[in-house]
């Protein structure tokens, strides 16, 4: 049965001090790990034993009021679906922050932008914030700093002048994909832009596809489609009848590429003989379908590590002497059998 | 370039009151949406305009100190990899909480349990907490309530007596899978338990497999394996040579099922003729592989909706008159071609 809450009964640091037979200042020194406070190990152990016995939990809000900031680091949830890349980033960031006495929390609102977003994040008085570039303006970053946020790290398509940015360029994926297909001799290609949740990254990748196709003098067909076998089959059947069909398709990601493999086979076309298919992400799926999928690999683990390294570098020298070196992140084609 | 932070310069509610020409009490009534406070629309608009102009963000910590609790709802990040199910849960919960003026945040620590976990979550003085059952004890739930947490909702394999629990039974998946294979006439089956990150849910599903196999008098072989084509191929080759090989394999999830499809074909075995293969999750992958995958569907969207409904029901009648009705959640087999 749910207990009726009893707010106000929570033990205070005064209770801890009484139980341990020390002053409240000593309790505060121990709990905040104040360097040079000259607390003996025996005293520290007594305080920690009292904390455990009483079930004392410091109040992050009260601490933030005293210090002007809390020990929280806020990651603003990105708008794209959660998956392996974000999971890896959160895992690495959490461990690195824990070593510094900081706690990673994810702010669940995916929609707020600009000053509205900054106000919502600032309510938590975090030490640092990671967010997508498109959610922040120069004014909103300024507002965060005014509220005691010491470090703001952005991630996005392009670097911005008002905060350190880790660049993750969707557009570059489209360029790398088309460069590969051009090298393979393709002169007529199709590119899929997903409808629905993935439309936005799809558009960004397509910008790169358009640029690279122009560079190579490649004829380009854009296909907007949902993740749906019926839609893929209709497309494939159209191509089966067309003399001037594309000889390769850039399929946005590995799932769409696998969908196209199935639809092309169902329409009587062979891969890569009639049409080559190129995915993105290098997921385990690539090895499981027939023919095995060629793909553009994004190295999300090394990207996550790089992202965390930049964040820690900035946190460690909080008042910033310039930007850390932010390395470029280049996608690479993994060749298998489909393209 | 990163701005040097200027803590302490953040506008206060007194600044807002001055700019709007109203009292601080009026500002507080407007910002906290206090019912029956008799604020006119004109005054409310003046206050909100001043809030925007000054870039004022209320301090969640200060609010929590006054009220004994904050407007935060903490979701303790589960230990299993983030994916579609958790994404859906977060999305639905965020919207439902926002309607109630509450903010969803995800606590990034996946490892803390018991009193350590409760103390870490309590630091944020949240209004409500969602967590996995295995992370909580009766004492830790008590500690949360003492710190003003009004609602604690757990999710786990079994209901517990000390907090409302939404049951999501991994074991039941194993039972449903084996019941299906038994109905199809299989008397010798293999079940995969993944090594690595997915081992724990794999063990829970296997408990159900063992129980159902005993009920049906089915001969059972347990296979512990990583997600790796080499390992799958070695297994499949062994089966190709064995007269008493299993006639069906329960493959933990759709990815493992697809891996086995490929390995069995590479070893010269046909599916489902030589060996049937059953996955779990009903992912899009099921339609993309050959033969199309039969699977146990978990209805994660309806589970997420149910979970959120229980949470909101508890939040809406905060001081609880009994538990809401928590419906059972039954996995179902989706039959395609592989089993």
Automatic annotation (TrEMBL), chains A, B:
The keyword DNA-binding applies. Signal peptide: none annotated. It comes from the Bacteria. Residues 11-67 form the HTH lacI-type domain. GO terms for molecular function: DNA-binding transcription factor activity; transcription cis-regulatory region binding. InterPro entries: HTH_LacI, LacI/GalR-like_sensor, Lambda_DNA-bd_dom_sf, Peripla_BP_I. Keywords: DNA-binding, Transcription, Transcription regulation. PANTHER family: LACI-RELATED TRANSCRIPTIONAL REPRESSOR, LACTOSE OPERON REPRESSOR. This is LacI family transcriptional regulator. It comes from Yinghuangia soli.
